[in-house]
Amino acid sequence: MSAAQKIQQHPVFVQVQNKAQYHVGQLDKELSKYPVLNNFENRTQIPKTYAVLGALFIIAVLHTVNPLAAPVSNLVGWGLPAYLSFKALETPSPNDDVQWLTYWVVFGFFNFLESFAIRLVLYYLPWYYAFKTVFIVWLQLPAFRGAQTTYFTVLKPILSNVSGQSRAVAPTTTTADAHQE
Fold first, then answer.
1. DSSP SS3 for 87
2. Which of 61, 125, 146, 161 would give a disulfide with 139, using CB separation of 3.0 to 4.6 Å?
């Protein structure tokens, strides 16, 4: 009998394995309440429990290896969208152009805001880059329409308010004003 077989038959190993299977089953029951995860599992054939545990593991690694968190987050925000934007420009349909143009406006706006307050944000939210990465993925995925949602609920009201104020503030001269000078 090999050493690996002896370990696998050891009562402690068997007990730990049974407990792990029990907890995975419980987590699977809990995650089955979410249609998004069920749909993900059906489309990818990856068990939703393993996908969630893998995502949590990746987030933990990003948090633990903090110097890698910012470049990884920015690579996620730039790499695939840049490629898909290039592909969108090559297609005759304008729908994908709108998707990626909206994404770049939102991504750029949040990166601009981030540049002002990153130290403060990292002080209060050490897992910021993990959350930012999840947010970026949400913005990118056409199924969620995150970029469009963010644009229409956050950016458009701000930008239309700013552009509306700049027009209202701009002085206008009439011919009567010009003759009085």
1. helix
2. 146
Q: What are the tokens at 129?
A: 């880059």
Which residue type, as a one-letter code, is found at position 86? F
Under 8 Å between Cβ of 156 and 164: no
> Cα separation of 131 and 62, whole Å?
10
**Three-class SS state of 181:** coil
Count other Cβ atoms within 10 Å, centred on residue 133.
20
Q: Is the pLDDT of residue 71 over 50?
A: yes
Q: Are 85 and 142 in contact (CB under 8 A)?
A: no
Q: What angle do CA 131, 96, 146 make, to 5 degrees?
A: 25
Q: How confident is the model at residue 63 (pLDDT cuts 50, 70, 90)?
A: low
Helices 48-64, 35-44: crossing angle, 10 deg rounding:
100
Q: At what angle do helices 95-124 and 128-140 cross, to 10 degrees?
A: 170
What predicted TM-score, i.e. pTM, was given to this entire model?
Answer: 0.58
The DSSP call for residue 158 is H
